[in-house]
Design brief:
With 85 residues, the chain is an alpha+beta fold. It has one domain. The chain is 58% helix and 16% strand. It has a two-stranded antiparallel ribbon. Helix 1 runs antiparallel to helix 2. The N and C termini lie far apart (64 Å). The N terminus is likely disordered.
Length: 85
């Protein structure tokens, strides 16, 4: 039995297969990691919503939203642009 091990955000995944080609193992591991990525992004948004319920300072709200967006997109930087009519 072969095992392909990966770590992602503190979670360890193991994929066990017998007689599986490297291509099948690669496809399966990408599927596992996309589920893990979706879970991570959902957790970021859940945490954000919990913090925003009690926040009254609009500047802090914008900063929290930007921080969550940066984390989800894994971007190094971002901006929030506000339009005033």
């Amino acid at each position: 039995m072969r095992a392909a091990e990966r770590a992602n955000n503190g979670l360890d995944f193991q994929l066990f297969a017998t007689d599986a080609s490297p291509e099948i193992l690669a496809r399966a591991s990408r599927g596992v990691f996309s589920v893990a990525e979706e879970f991570r992004n959902t957790k970021v948004l859940q945490d954000l919503s919990a913090r925003l319920v009690t926040e009254e300072n609009i500047q802090t709200i914008y900063e929290e939203i930007l921080t969550a967006a940066l984390e989800i997109t894994r971007a190094d930087a971002g901006t929030v642009q506000m339009l005033h009519d």
